[in-house]
Amino acid sequence: MTTGKINVSVENIFPLIKKFLYSDHEIFLRELVSNATDATLKLKHLTSIGEANVEYGNPVIEVKIDKEGKKLHITDQGIGMTAEEVDKYINEVAFSGAEEFLEKYKDSAKDSGIIGHFGLGFYSAFMVAEKVEIITKSYKEEPAVHWTCDGSPEFTLEPSDKTARGTEIILHIAEDSTEFLEEGRIRELLTKYNKFMPVPIKFGTRKETLPKPEDAPEDYKAEEIEVDNIINNPNPAWTKQPSDLTDEDYKAFYHELYPMQFEEPLFNIHLNVDYPFNLTGILYFPKLSADLQVQKDKIQLYQNQVFVTDNVEGIVPEFLTMLRGVIDSPDIPLNVSRSYLQADGNVKKISNYITRKVADKLKSLFNENREDFQKKWDDIKIVLEYGMLSEPKFYEKAGAFTLYPTTDGKYYTLEELKEALKDKQTDKDGKLVVLYASNKEEQHSYIADAKEKEYEVLLLDSPIVSHLIQKLEADNENLTFARVDADSLDKLINKDEEQISKLNDEEKEKLKTQLEEIVPKQTYTVQLEAMDSSATPFRITQPEFMRRMKEMSQSGGGGMFGMGNMPEMYNLVVNTNSELAGQILGTEDAAQRSALVKQALDLAKLSQNLLKGEELTAFVKRSFELIK
């Protein structure tokens, strides 16, 4: 037996490891299982190139709890270590065996899936263990060795009677970490971090019913056998070629990733690139509501099938963080705990690639089956609209498949929309005016008036629509958007067609004065307009610019001078050719006139969903009195 001191640059490295090196103690299991996977894949590689003259077989990594002995065992059937290698890789702390291995075999090992970080990864064991043992036998013809360390820089190294190739790590769990002796906790961690590791991981056993033989008698009793409980799927869908997967395979994998998600994904995008970086993965579009407060952090990041994090900020463009799925790349730089990304040039390239790939997929879905794409539009539009605003590269491509639905259920691309509207909705200055509604029910009467004039009205109801139309207007000359309730239609699409007013200038002035005495000045600006006599007598509109700036301020960005906090301001548009205008003008009794104006104003407010609380109660009471 030999004893010695671990060669470390900091005398008290173990307290340091326990306290600072890893942000989360639970990742010790991920590190140790990763090392076991490393050792197994190294052996696979060496046997495949004829450098290890042993049978690779069907190796399994086993995780076993000894609750009584307060021990946790992690055993592999991999490459193993000689006494010299234990001294080098375990006792020389910051020396990474995997890095040296990759350097030595860098050409042939390119695709062997080595995870790396043997050195410090192993020492994460001391976060939860008061003593750690390694019993290991190399694939080389050398005796097995037994290394022990109690969390101080002293260790012992002695021969072992282990005959099977591979490594067993035994953690003597510390008093403050006994949660890691609980079967449920270990299963939870293996499922979280090692669910898709490339080597089968055994955790206990389970019972399996044997299939009934064809010639079984009627009283045949099903036979149960005990089999290894393999906790992971070593060949997840993203490691396969898209041509080898069906739609059902993709859906099954989605439910494997999200067992509690019962809705089917809308569609998926398979990522597969090996130049100028390595990246594989599958992204899914889930059903999304028109609400920016969706749950993010649903994309899982892996490095060679080892779970790293579900915070993919910086790798995936922000607008796509609303998607779900998996990204796996050995080229994403990670620190020692594999928990936090460090920015470098590759990350930006990866982000750009994902943006391009998503845009290309959406375009092909649109081209292949437009009808199906239109059906899914409401469920995906928030992601696409957000992408158009936040990613210039996506915006460039999005014009080919971004849709603008009408209140009648028709769908146009922007170019189709321009073509369809140009004859009817171009104003006297040559500007194409695109009318839109944000709520089909609340703005129903305004939509109905527009349809009567044979105008198309879009239904744009996402919370970021104000930002989007601002961008579209800036990028498309002679195109303007106006919400259908922003003004009278004749003003929204000004064709320079003068309507004759029944009232002369003096009567109009008198009517305006009468109205302004009754209508609250702080909220409404009275506008008199000559319209068709059958048009609505009183109509409330909200100026497009003011409303849009306010919305942009409330939804973040683009709001000017704190407009989000400004009080609501409206126009009260009064049709001077309506019977009601003449009636108000002809009513001498001030009280009667006031009641008439208030009733008409309340009706206009009601059509804009602005009549609430005390005002609504008073309106209902007044209405009943009028019909007595």
From TrEMBL:
Record Pfam families: HATPase_c_3 (PF13589), HSP90 (PF00183)
Per UniProt, the keywords (alphabetical) are: ATP-binding, Chaperone, Coiled coil, Nucleotide-binding
Organism superkingdom? Bacteria
Q: Which residues form a coiled coil?
A: 486-513
Known Gene3D superfamilies for this protein? 3.30.230.80, 3.40.50.11260, Heat shock protein 90, C-terminal domain, Histidine kinase-like ATPase, C-terminal domain
Q: Cite the InterPro entries for this sequence.
A: HATPase_C_sf, Heat_shock_protein_90_CS, HSP90_C, Hsp90_fam, Hsp90_N, Ribosomal_Su5_D2-typ_SF
Whether Transport counts among this entry's keywords is no
CDD domains xref list:
HATPase_Hsp90-like
> Which PROSITE patterns does the entry mention?
HSP90
Q: Which NCBIfam families does the entry mention?
A: PRK05218.1
The family this protein is said to belong to: Belongs to the heat shock protein 90 family.
Name this polypeptide is given:
Molecular chaperone HtpG
Q: Which source organism does the UniProt entry give?
A: Flavobacterium rhizosphaerae
| Gene that produces this protein | htpG
